Amino acid sequence: MKTAAEIMNADVPSVTADDEARTAIDLLAKTDMGAIPVVDDDRKVVGIVSESDLVIADEESDLHLPHYLQIMGGVVFIGSMKGFEKRLEKAFATKVSELMSADPITVHTYEAADRVARKIAEHHHNHLPVVDEDERLAGMVTRADALAAVVDG
Question: What's the CATH code of the domain at 18?
Answer without folding.
Answer: 3.10.580.10
